[in-house]
Amino acid sequence: MTVDTESPVRPMSTVTEDEPLGATRSERLSALAQQHGALVTLVIAVLAAWLSFDTFMTTDNMQNMAVSSAFLAVVALGMTFVIVTGGIDLSVGSLFALGGVLAAWGSQYGTAVALLLPLGVCALIGFVNGLLIARSRLAPFIVTLAALLGARGILLAVTDEGSKTYLVDKDSFFATLGQGKLLGIGAPVWITVGLFVAGAVVLRRSRFGQYVYAVGGNEDAAALMGVPVARTKTAVYTLSGLCAGLAGALNAAWLASGVTILGSGMELEAISAVVIGGTLLSGGFGFLSGSLVGVLLLKVIQNVINQIGSLDSAYQQVVSGGFLAVVVVAQTWLGRRRRVL
User: Fold this and answer.
1) φ and ψ at 185, to 5 degrees?
2) What is the pTM of this model?
């Protein structure tokens, strides 16, 4: 695929990873910092926490952190596709909560209903978001904000204004998806790893992945090259809704209930994780491995604050927000540096 040289899009075999053969040393260093900076920071944070707190590297703490990270990671997976196209999805927090409630309600009719109901409903809402954004050319911020409110309204209707909490039978196979373990690792972690492997293959090695990068790099140029822009945008928002619904269903299986108050602010956490992982908000550049690192980094920061004990949980938001601001500034500086060089 031929792309505009002003766009950050690369051919399929080298998208977001490889620099041109003639790249200078400064260009390569800037690219590496932009791509792997979050990973280096994660390693440093883990080592610092390990040396500072005796309970940080315990088996129980690692398992709890891994499972709790899995749900946000699944949401961030779908968000990565959206942001790479240059869009944004503010509805995922409400879809996460709605998916959990629908899954808990549907679990009384079997595992198939518990999974298919939230996946179908949340994917449908994502599909509608995509249609309005791609076909009607409405702003993603406004469309997904409306979906956030609409999904929360459906949630309240299903639960009688939040007064009902649907429980999951702990002996059911559906509960095993959230509470079961394989080789000592929680089932949600294995599911998340599988989804990220599949997502990475799709994003970097498929024609659809090329379309996603092309739309985010230069939408007008992509349309001229024959890329189905509207269809691609609709697909990524549908995928985002699907991932949010699945994460909510897995969380309901883990908690054995559909908790109505969950998901508030989760859309901001997902966006933060994706951006911290190196994906540009302007679109055209990003990778799923970075988003996974971003999720882990946020969870490590939260866990460290909990380990300190004397700090209020509100500091988690302060630290995460400050860290995100630093990352965005660094990304902007590195991007400008690469263009100048």
Assistant:
1) -115, 135
2) 0.85
